[in-house]
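Reviewers asked in the last cycle whether our approach scales beyond single polypeptides. To address this, we selected a multi-component target totalling 606 residues and predicted its structure end to end. The input consisted of the following lines:
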Amino acid sequence: MPALLGAGRDSLIHQALLYGSETEFTEEALAFLAEGRGADDALVVIAPPDRIDLLRPGLPPECEFREAAGYFTTPPRSIATAVSVGRDRWWKDGGRVRVVAEQVWKGRDPVEVREWKRFEALVNVVFAGTRTSLLCAYDLRTVPSDVMRIVERTHHGLDYEPPARVYAELDRAPLLPQTGQVAHRGFVRGELPGLRDFTAKAAAVFGLTAAMPLIMAVNEVATNIIKHGGGSGSLLVWSDGGAVICDLLDPVGRVEDRFLGFLPPSPDQPSGAGMWMVRQLCDLVEIRSGGTGTIFRLTARLP
Amino acid sequence: MDAPSGPPVRRHVAVGDMRMGDHLGLVYDNDTERRSILVSFVRDGLRDNHKIIYKSDSAEPDALVEWLAADPGAEGLDLAQAVADDQLVVRTAREAYLSTGRFDPDEIIGLSLTELEVALVQGWGGVRLAGEQTFALRGWPGTERFGEFERKICEAFAALAPAPAMAICQFDRRWFRSRPLESLLESHHGLVHVDDVYYDGVLRITPTFTPPGLALAGAVEESTFPALTEALQRLGGETGHLCLDLTDLDFCDMAGLRVMLAARTSPDGQERMVLLRGVGETLAGLLKIAGWDDLPGLVVEEG
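The resulting structure, written as structure tokens, was:
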């Protein structure tokens, strides 16, 4: 969708910097950030420490640096941080922000990689209409080819596709099967106090003691199923050894919202805030919805 | 060395839970709160076919009845009719206690017991007594025996067991000094407080008066959300700003949080402050994650 390019100060520009050497990275990133200095744009670099070291000498002191590992924790939390910092600083008083960002791909498991691919598509939805110029850097020597294929489909000026299409495609991957002992409990209207107790006990059995965020998330999804879905559902709690996983099944209800819970709630019109909160509270939320109902899978990593 | 003596353990009784034989203190510094308790006391008495005898030190009988009738809780009560039927009797403290020119506890208790017998003969199911004890501060002859009077009421109730009467003695905290007040309260079975507006085993909602609002205990969730919404609606025009005491709230879902924040607009469309008091760590975290912690009109007190 090249029409978005340069379509005015209120539009997102989301471009990719594909580089083959440190020199190439440094020159192109600095040139991109330098374009904003005349316009008084806020300058931000989110990257691994060695990339930050390459850029820092060429940038003014007011430039903001964030370490990639600390920033890219989960896609929903990264979105929340950007939205919050953006509202407070970057976009304040009509300003524009210029960001150079490099993701950490190494050491991520396949599910994490899939979610960070989703993030590439979501950026185009969440930050549409914000005064943001984003240059995402990819080291062609190390970034896997399946990631590069997504990069091409999610950045302006390449083979851009509608974000909903990329997002839906990522949901075609089946959820991993449940393993080990599975605790099960059904729920209907009026039974949430018991469901919260059940969640707390099951989470503790699997080793999660500080389970309040997970309990709140389970309660929120169960409430949605009772109020807006099929009216009753079931909860399955299990563990893959590294995390406690809660599957909430709605045998009837279907999720129509493509980006459910990824768009920040507005204070004036706060509906939809529930799933936003669920995504913030969990380390991973996976939703699969179809003719046979919906499954919400909430994951909380064990410490 | 003597063991340190803590404050005396007192029963705390909701006015709606009072039983025959109860002789309770009502310590107040807020007349709205006091009236709310008294109106519940009167309303329950009318419902149960009790005779209600009120001794007023603050107003003439007509004015006192008008003051009671103006309470929102008196809606639907015909107090004038109750006075006409001799079911509700209001006397000034001066005529009740000073008819012989001197405050004499034994004589007054003797008269009260006679009045009690007469009421039962007339067919009333019991007698409810309520008195404003500020008269004891007027320096009337004999009032130095006021402490003895309170003690002897307790003894008289005990001698009658099962007593066909219950009593509320009102103490204005602004005028009774704390040490004499403490010893006066020792001659009572406990303290009376306002009725809950809602309790279902999951959530308790209790009105508060300084500052005006609601105290919530238990869980705000799918099953209790309608009750909270209704209680907030009812606080409509009565108060300016609104305090929600969440000290004993164990759980709150997003919908509950949302409806509390929405109370920043009163039912008649006025902007007002919502003070959230005793906000726990989890709830404070939710407010921050949602970006709702600095909404205009919202004050969050953690603790």
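Chain A touches chain B at residues 80, 83-84, 87, 189-190, 192-193, 196, 212-213, 216, 219-220, 222-223, 226-227, 264-265, 267, 270, 273-274, 276-277, 280-281 (CB under 8 Å). We regard this as preliminary and will revisit it once experimental data from Aim 1 are available.
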